[in-house]
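Pipeline run #58 for the internal structure catalog. This entry was flagged by the ingest filter as a single-chain record with no existing model, so it goes straight to prediction. Upstream metadata was stripped on purpose; only the residue string is passed forward. Reviewer on rotation: M.T. Logging verbosity set to normal.
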Amino acid sequence: MSWLIGVDIGTSRIKAGAVDTDGSEHSSADAPTPWINVPTGAELDPKQLLDSVLNVLSHLLDRLPSAPDGDVLALGIAGIAETVVYLDGDNNPVMRSIAWYDSRGEDEAMEIADRFSGGSFSERTGIPASRLCTLAKWRWLHNHMNQPLPVVRIMGIAEWVAYQLGGEQVAELSLASRSGLLDVRDGKWWKEAIEWAELSIEAMPELVTAGMAIGNFDGSRYAEHGLSRLNGAVLTIGGHDHSCGAVGAGIIDDNEIFDSCGTAEALVRATGNMPDRDAIEFALSGHVTVGRHALPGRFVLLGAQRAGLVLGRILKLIGYGDEELGGSRMDLLESDAISALNDIGELKILNAERDLASITGIGWDMNPVHIWRAAVLTVTDRMYELLSTISTVGGPIDRIAISGGWSRSRTLRAAKKKKVGETMAMDYPDIREPGVRGAALFGGCAASVFDSLPRPAIMPEGTIG
């Protein structure tokens, strides 16, 4: 049997999985993303990241059915955006990579907004001027380092890992569109922003689309990791983890939306056209960004909230922090919550995603079930607000497909169905790791395995995957 391997470098974990040429998932492996905590957030040692990816791949191959060398046709790598590797003239990292969520860059984001005033930054990039983007982090380094960094090339971490495995130095469009350095509409590096950042255009890699072959796995570099079965596998970039996950879930049409319901909940919608300036401004006001999709030639509307973090925080508060979804105690809480989903009275959770949230409207007969229901309804209402903004910008939505760890919550499923189930079809694709599957499918595109991307089956109503 021939295999396609997908790797998803996420904020929490590095995941890898094998997909056959019919698009079905098989073995998988994972490990924590090796962040190094610092006072402002976190950093990443690129070489340590590479070692972690190699170890995950080694564990994955150990779990695959035995077959001759060369049975892995392709390897696709997707992952988080904004976090980058800075390379010197010898293509070695010059420092650790700053996490996208690190607090550095707040003042520099204000510099960006001032320099590109009148909304020109967001019109060009589709994202707000914030500390999250690569440009703000780079300006922070520029303002705070004692001496100039010898940087000759900037690469996203997914592309850098692929380069280390034998690929060319490239930047995939959906990842680049989160940097603040790409003109999203034209799909080219934004020269004015690059010059303002005191970078050179030569520091920016060649732009490519997901699913484009960028080289072949070079096993001679990593013989000690036992990866000989990957020798010669076609390498590609699977793109931004959210867009890649939508592809893995089979959500590729303009009238569909993917709800990646994990630690962070992301709503992902492909569109054939870049919204105009007014539409971008409206989208950003509703916390929806515009960028390039991993699907070649397509744009993406992306709304996000930290739903899983909110729900986990509330479960810990009410004494269920160690319970797993589907466990007997958690199952009883969910059954009680579903029986009267809207029975929370005046109970409200305010500022749910902030460091200091609060609960108001606590009546005399409140119990953990009421608070759990309130938490679920809070994140569901926020999801619906994002969904409404996306549909206003991109047009009507006929179908929403939901995946991710928190999609297994029966209470959350019931709340989503009640909120949006009457306006569009709602289903749950039968997949375990959409980002991994999407990266593997893009690998299949690079290796000319697919004429069209295979869609997963849909789980029957009421099934919890």
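catalog note: Residues 368-394 form the longest helix (27 residues).
catalog note: The two ends are 26 Å apart (CA to CA).
status: ready for reviewer M.T.
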